[in-house]
Amino acid sequence: MVLNYLAPSTVTERFLRYVAIDTQSDPSSPSCPSTEKQKNLGHMLVNELLALGVTDAHLDEYGYVYATIPANTAKPDVPVICFCSHMDTSPDCSGKDVKPLIHYNYAGNNIVLPDDTTQVLRMQDHPDLKNQLGNDIITASGNTLLGADNKAGLAEIMDACYQLINHPEIKHGTIKILFTPDEEIGRGVDKVDIEKIGAFACYTIDGESAGNMENETFSADGARLTINGISAHPGFAKDKMESAIKIAGQIIAALPHDLSPEGTEGMKGFVHPVDFAGHVETATIDFIIRDFVEENLVKHAEVIKQVAESVLKNYPNATYTLDVKEQYRNMKNVLAQHPQIVEYGMEAINRTGLKAKLCSIRGGTDGSRLSFMGLPTPNIFAGEHAFHGKQEWVSVQDMQKAVETILHLCMIWEERA
Ligand SMILES: [Zn+2]
């Protein structure tokens, strides 16, 4: 089926509406959602879903939106599929009073953002702009992020809902919708109700370039290195004091560059000190440890130990402990048990005329945690670029392709059942 009725699509109007609402999350807040204002967007989405006739749409106390589009096929065994995006924007950059601008028919020129003219989108800094000639680029105005991460995904899923409901010729099984708060602070699925979703598979619509699908994330551990030094009165410390602060400093300085975030790319993992606290007597260094291969996490922790031991050779009375805790695991291991989930995703992208490309993420997604909670969840492009900053952009045409991809996915699951 050719989905040419999508033009002109309303995905852009939806997107412009959602980015106007400030939904910045806050890592220092213990509540869920971390900021109450995220519910403002949740209410808007629920009201729009209800207006479309999605009668069970609701926002729960934790700021999650759930909704169901009932099956319209006679086939009884079509697996239930869920689509997911997050409503919050990054704490790294203001999301207040976002003024989205559409730059029609992009011709490769620099895009100067009017409210801060030092913010210029140049093709050499944003290589993906090369694929956007003739397209309509949406940016913020210079003072804020845009919020395409992940309001592009929200708009795409919402527009797909609209299309599904208004085009009964698109046959599909039961479709579940999930919009989450607090993804940007790593808490996006803390309060998710997997039972209520009741889906066989889920797709987050939160990826970057059009055509991309991601089936692989890092596996991640956190580690705390505690150094127990020897304190003494500084006036009488000769040959006695072994300062935990100085030991920690030497350990941090001795970490190998080729196992650091700034020294690695592609499929290589790293260890990375993210926090330090210390006195003369004790000091702690918190690390994150990342690799695509789970077994390598142990090897990387071993490197931290080796560095600590070699530094401590010069401090005969000081000691250390290393405490490693699991954070999340590469979702590829779960997705490999149900290869059709990624396969259908790739086919859906190809059916839109794009060339599907399978990628890995040097990080985690809500999908990596959902996958291990029993809901296998790869990530599909939303078209968002340069996220978490003032030069964030998305194109109208990429958003339309994402809507088409969602619709094709619904059809493919029905066809194959
Ligand atoms: Zn995101």
Quick rundown:
The chain is an alpha+beta fold and 417 residues long.
As a percent range, the share of strand residues is: 15-25%
Helix/strand/pairing class, anyone?
alpha+beta
Q: Over the alpha carbons, how many angstroms does the gyration radius reach? A: 24 Å
- Sheet with the most strands: spatial strand order: 1-2-8-3-9-16-10-15
Number of strands: 17
Helix content: 25-40%
Cα shape: globular
Instruction: Please tell me the overall pLDDT.
Output: 95
The H/E string reads HHEEEEEEEHEHEEEHEEHEHHEHEEH
Structure annotation, total helices: 10
Distance between termini?
18 Å
| Hetero ligands | zinc ion
What are the segments in which pLDDT stays under 50 over at least 5 consecutive residues?
A: 1-8
Largest sheet: 8 strands, mixed
Which key terms come to mind for this protein?
single chain; 417 residues; alpha+beta; 8-stranded mixed β-sheet; 4-stranded antiparallel β-sheet; 10 helices; 17 strands; globular; disordered N terminus; binds zinc ion
Overview of this protein structure:
- By secondary structure, this protein is α+β, with helices and mostly antiparallel strands.
- 29% of the residues lie in helices and 22% in strands.
- It contains 10 helices and 17 strands.
- It has helices at 11-19, 38-52, 148-166, 194-197, 244-254, 294-312, 332-335, 339-351, 366-372, 396-416; strands at 58-59, 65-69, 81-86, 101-103, 111-112, 120-121, 137-139, 175-180, 201-207, 212-217, 219-228, 270-278, 282-291, 319-328, 357-361, 379-381, 393-395.
- An 8-stranded mixed sheet has the order 1-2-8-3-9-16-10-15, sandwiched between helices. The protein has a 4-stranded antiparallel sheet with strand order 12-13-11-14. Strands 4-7-17 form a 3-stranded antiparallel sheet.
- The two termini are 18 Å apart.
- Residues 1-8 have low confidence and may be disordered.
- It binds zinc ion (ZN).
- Residues 86, 149-150, 183, 206 line the site of zinc ion.
